[in-house]
Amino acid sequence: MSELATKCLIIGSGPAGYTAGIYTSRANLNPIMVDGSQPGGQLITTTEVENFPGYPEGIAGPAMMEDFKAQAMRFGLMTISGEVTEIDLSKRPFVAKVNGGGHVITADTVIIATGAAARYLGLPDEQKYLGMGVSACATCDGFFFRNRPVAVVGGGDTACEEALYLAGLASKVYMIVRKDYLRASKYMQSRVMENEKIEVLFNTETLSLFGDDVLAGAHLVSRRGTENEDEFDIAVEGFFLAIGHSPNTAVFGPALELDEMGYIKTKSPSTATNLEGVFAAGDVADPFYQQAVSAAGMGCRAALDAERFLMLQE
Ligand code: NDP
């Protein structure tokens, strides 16, 4: 076990965390970043990022996060592998315990940039087939379903992106959409609708999954509650969830104020939370925009807020 001290502890390593790392390093706060269960954050599971300014040809999500990391490391950001398992935010300095190397970190300020995790439907069979057909990451698991039929649940940009990615591998892709329209951007919608391998099932919900040891299909209902309600099965070996995310806040305890959806409340336009010296940035504190570029911008603001807070303390 080692004991470390910093003026700024950054929890999370997505665009918000690394941008906070760049700014706090350059401000000589000697920041320490704990990189979490998925170093690089959600973009690690994304294929092509086409809307982050500065990459005119687009860039693969993992490659972009390598760039973020390299830039932060250049200014001396210290990163620690592992997850914060305990932190008491009710008194300063804050003390965090990290699993893995067993570090204990004392910090004058904390920037929470823990992002959000994929949501599941909550069907009883979802957990049974997790890793045996059920997945929340097409880019991670799509490869296993080459030339096999799959389904994607959701009608947002993520669902469209996953469906398009899977269409390049699978024999057939069903999109299961509970409303009669897609919520995704017009551009993504048209790409999905033009793809011959993708069949969009509007007004359709999943009732259950079936199979033996591995997934074989899904039992669906369309136009539920109407006189045209229809239950039917589709044969799919892969079932991909793309129905949004829940913010990762479990470790922070009741002292930290959250909104009714579970996102950290910040005192906009600042990134200050209800706890002095604790700031939040990125998807964990942003139910509205949830973009890499807006997360990066918020990471910058959190770093400047932390720096200003420390200056006023002195
Ligand atoms: P969204 O919240 O935009 O979409 C979630 C989708 O899942 C909606 O269609 C929603 O349906 C559906 N859904 C939610 N709960 C359930 C449920 N219980 N059963 C069935 N369907 C459900 O999430 P995304 O992850 O797609 O996107 C998040 C943000 O990230 C958005 O702002 C998006 O634009 C952005 N993004 C941008 C990308 C890009 O530009 N390259 C790529 C990916 C995401 P309903 O519409 O009925 O609520």
Written account of the structure:
The strands form five sheets. Strands 1, 2, 5, 6, 7, 8 and 19 form a seven-stranded mixed β-sheet that branches. Strands 10-17-11-12-13 form a five-stranded parallel β-sheet. The protein has helices at 15-26, 61-74, 124-128, 138-141, 157-167, 186-194, 292-313; strands at 3-11, 32-34, 48-49, 59-60, 78-80, 84-88, 94-98, 104-112, 116-118, 134-135, 149-153, 172-176, 198-201, 204-211, 215-222, 230-235, 238-241, 245-247, 278-280. The mean pLDDT is 94. 25% of the residues lie in helices and 28% in strands. β1 (3-11), α1 (15-26) and β2 form a beta-alpha-beta unit. NADPH dihydro-nicotinamide-adenine-dinucleotide phosphate is lined by residues 51, 121, 153-159, 161, 178-179, 183, 242-244, 290.
Oligomeric state of shown chains: single chain
What is the residue-mean pLDDT, rounded to a whole number? 94
Helix content: 10-25%
Instruction: Write down the overall geometry.
Output: elongated
Question: What bound compounds does this protein have?
Answer: NADPH dihydro-nicotinamide-adenine-dinucleotide phosphate
N-end to C-end Cα span: 31 Å
Largest sheet: 7 strands, mixed
- Tell me the β content: 25-35%
Radius of gyration: 21 Å
Total number of beta strands: 19
Low-confidence stretches: none
Order of helices and strands: EHEEEHEEEEEHEHEHEHEEEEEEEH
Q: Determine the structural class based on helices, strands and strand pairing.
A: alpha/beta
Count of DSSP-assigned helices: 7
